[in-house]
From TrEMBL:
It comes from Pusillimonas noertemannii. This is 4-hydroxy-3-methylbut-2-en-1-yl diphosphate synthase (flavodoxin). One of its GO terms (molecular function) is 4-hydroxy-3-methylbut-2-enyl-diphosphate synthase activity (flavodoxin). Pathway: Isoprenoid biosynthesis; isopentenyl diphosphate biosynthesis via DXP pathway; isopentenyl diphosphate from 1-deoxy-D-xylulose 5-phosphate: step 5/6. Residues 315-416 form the IspG C-terminal domain.
């Protein structure tokens, strides 16, 4: 290609890359013991999750909270739906503290939250945050009184709250009133548009009422959850433009398997790219016998692949094609990614910065060497008909070539050495 063929093709300035600046919000502090995590106020986007155990079973719940926390959940929500559950919350907190599991517990309340928080003050104290759904606290004066009771308890114990509205339990009276008003418009909106508006109005009006009742404005997080991607994006854009409370993002009832992951990612990625969202939860339905921690991994991977946070070294792997007849590279990519994730609970304190490391596992010579050179550490496995050897690249330089039946264990040892050398001792990190 000659120089003249580029005329008019090149950009006049570098294309912009990366998310928009984060939406400025109030910062909410969630405390447990002498520790704290910040939501909003410019803090990194917080990953949270929710247990699916019976909270009345304190042992099972504490074990699952521990698993979620070890996977990287920075807040864990537990349902508090019965007196038996509320009674066990302090025991769950104690077990976690005994096990050295440092994560705050959020209580998820519906219908009877005002009663449970009043009747079980030790539960109210042991929780670090309350989730309140104003759409299912009764109607009329009863709803107002129940809501006020929960907010007064939150203020008394100095607990932040999430006012979480959900289209499946939207305040019927508010919706009816807004539909009435809509009917008087010269050009009435669709019922769906009114519903989206009602979600935002419900969240903000309840937050303002909570402040009038004495809860500080920097103790309130809002969520407006729906289960359709485009509705969620529209609702949160609107919410973000109308208030400065931190936003908890999540596509409710996202579903199972790849559908749940894709739908959640599609919705949250758009919002996060626009600077909207201060904490996220991925509402995946686990496969039968599936691992609850999957929702934490997915949340982390959304944030990390978007460049918003780093949690675990990432493995770049090619998809494979007809040029490679073996599954060696698939197995190696899988085993290295699992190995790296398993190490992180220890590595994150021992090797600061290791979470930003990139590892490439490639299937053949077409893109293998190039992709491996761009990674911190990479391996290019032999494709069909290629010499059965696997060159390893470290910091862009070709180093050893692995051969034989033990490529996986030898490559893992090379990764371990690299981590120790680069992240292990002060001064060993590259500039
Ligand atoms: S690197 Fe090789 S094996 Fe992997 S997708 Fe590309 S051509 Fe196929």
């Amino acid at each position: 290609m000659t120089d003249s063929s580029l005329t008019g093709l090149c950009a006049t300035a570098p294309v912009s890359v990366g998310p928009a600046a984060r939406r400025p919000t109030r910062g909410v502090t969630v405390r447990w013991g002498d520790k704290a995590v910040r939501v909003g106020g410019g803090a990194p986007v917080v990953v949270q999750s929710m247990t699916n155990t019976d909270t009345a079973d304190a042992v099972a719940t504490a074990i699952q909270v521990k698993e979620l926390a070890l996977a990287g959940s920075e807040l864990v929500r537990i349902t508090v739906n019965t007196p038996e559950a509320a009674r066990e919350v302090p025991a769950i907190r104690e077990q976690l503290d005994r096990m050295g599991v440092s994560v705050p517990l959020v209580g998820d309340f519906h219908y009877n939250g005002h009663k449970l928080l009043s009747q079980f003050p030790e539960c109210a104290q042991a929780l670090s945050k309350y989730r309140i759904n104003p759409g299912n606290m009764g109607g009329g004066k009863k709803r107002d009184d129940n809501f006020a009771q929960m907010i007064e308890i939150a203020a008394r114990y100095q607990k932040p709250v999430r006012i979480g509205v959900n289209w499946g339990s939207l305040d019927h009276e508010l919706m009816a009133r807004m539909m009435d008003e809509n009917s008087r418009r010269t050009q009435p909106w669709t019922a769906q548009a009114v519903m989206r508006d009602a979600l935002v109005v419900s969240a903000i009006s309840n937050a303002r009422r909570a402040e009038q009742l004495g809860l500080p404005g920097d103790a309130i997080v809002l969520s407006c959850k729906v289960s359709h991607v485009q509705d969620l994006i529209a609702v949160y854009r609107d919410l973000a433009s109308r208030c400065d409370y931190p936003a908890h993002l999540g596509l409710t009832e996202a579903g199972m398997g790849s559908k749940g992951i894709v739908a959640s990612t599609a919705a949250l990625a758009v919002l996060l790219q626009e600077g909207i969202g201060d904490t996220i939860r991925i509402s995946l339905t686990p496969e039968p016998g599936g691992d609850r921690t999957r929702e934490v991994v997915v949340a982390q991977e959304i944030l990390q692949t978007m460049g918003l946070r780093a949690f675990t070294p990432m493995v770049v792997a090619c998809p494979g094609c007809g040029r490679t007849s073996s599954t060696v590279f698939q197995e190696l990519a899988d085993s290295i990614q699992s190995y790296l994730r398993r190490q992180m609970p220890v590595w994150k304190t021992r090797y600061p910065g290791v979470e930003t490391m990139n590892v490439a596992v490639m299937g053949c010579v077409v893109n293998g060497p190039g992709e491996s050179r761009h990674a911190d550490i990479g391996i290019s496995l032999p494709g069909t008909g290629e010499v059965p050897s696997a060159p390893v690249y470290i910091d862009g330089e070709r180093t050893v070539t692995l051969k034989g039946d033990h490529i996986a264990s030898e490559f893992q040892a090379i990764v371990e050495n690299y981590v120790e050398r680069r992240y292990g001792a002060p001064g060993s990190q590259r500039p």
